Amino acid sequence: MIKTFSFILVAVIAVLFVVLVIRVGSFKSRQVIAEPTQTLAISRAAAVAHLSEAIQLKTVSMQTPAANAGEFVALHALMERAFPRVHRELTKESVGDHSLLFTWRGKDQRLKPILLMAHMDVVPIDPTTESSWHYAPFSGEVADGYIWGRGAMDDKESVFAILEAVESLRRDELVLIDDELVRLPS
Fold first, then answer.
1. Quick one: how far is CA 100 from the chain centroid?
2. Bridge partners (DSSP) listed for residue 138
3. Rg (CA), the chain
4. Which region, left, alpha or beta, applies to residue 67 given φ > 0 means left and ψ of -120 to 50 means alpha?
5. What kind of fold does domain 44-184 have according to CATH?
6. b or e along 49-76 (b: 16 or more beta carbons within 10 Å of the residue's beta carbon)?
7. Distance (Å, whole) CA 183 – CA 5
8. d(CA 158, CA 79)
9. Which of 162, 182, 184 is nearest to 103 (CA)?
10. What's the pLDDT score for residue 186?
């Protein structure tokens, strides 16, 4: 009985292995081959300065949004100053308390839009850990080849990377085929 069961188990595993090998061997990539694009003309110094300044704003997520509304207002002002084309040429909507939605209309309204998304808020600092930070949490200090502070990796860097790219593409007068939505929740 045990020999029969073992034989059946080995046979089932062997069949599954053969099926797996055949499936892997017949797999065809669905990766779209895209033409290389031009490198965007973005000033590294300006991008670093923009992100550093943004990190210095304490856009901490709170249960009561009014608690640090001024910081979000200052961040919005920074973004408007740093990315004038985005603010002038895209449709900007305020959503909720401090979230933003930018719409860049494409030529073909029948196509589905793409969505680029990043959030502007950061998590609070545990006061008991602040002394263990190498650089102050909201310093935005540029040192050792990095920009230091809350939001440098989650997620202000994504907000500013998206806006730097869109600003550069608008400067180059790129025309989109489909719509692009940029959602920046607080």
1. 14
2. none
3. 24
4. alpha
5. Aminopeptidase (3.40.630)
6. ebbbbbbbbbbbeeeeeeebeebbebbb
7. 58
8. 13
9. 182
10. 79
Contact 124/60 with Cβ under 8 angstroms? yes
DSSP state of 60: B
Torsion from C-alpha of 153, 156, 160, 162, nearest 10 degrees: 80
Q: Is 102 helix (H, G, I), strand (E, B) or coil?
A: strand
Q: Over the stretch 116-128, which tens digit does the pLDDT of each residue have? A: 999 999 999 898 9
Cβ-based neighbour number of residue 104 at 10 Å: 22
Other Cβ atoms less than 10 A from the Cβ of 13: the count is 10
Count of C-beta atoms within a 10 Å radius of residue 81: 11
pLDDT digits (tens, 9 = 90+) for 5-42: 888 888 999 999 999 999 988 888 888 888 887 788 89
Distance CA 177, CA 19 (A): 42
**107 φ/ψ angles, rounded to the nearest 5 degrees:** -75, -35
Query: Which residue in this structure is represented by tokens 């031009």?
Result: 38
Contact 106, 112 (CB under 8 A): no
Q: Where are the domains of the chain?
A: 44-184
In whole angstroms, give the CA distance from residue 159 to residue 183. Answer: 9
> Can you tell me the distance from the alpha carbon of 26 to that of 19, in angstroms, rounded to the nearest whole number?
11
Pair of tokens at residue 158: 């994504």
Yes or no: say if 69 and 164 are a contact pair by the CB < 8 Å rule.
no
Which two three-digit tokens encode residue 90?
A: 């895209």
Pairing state between β 146-147 and 142-143: antiparallel
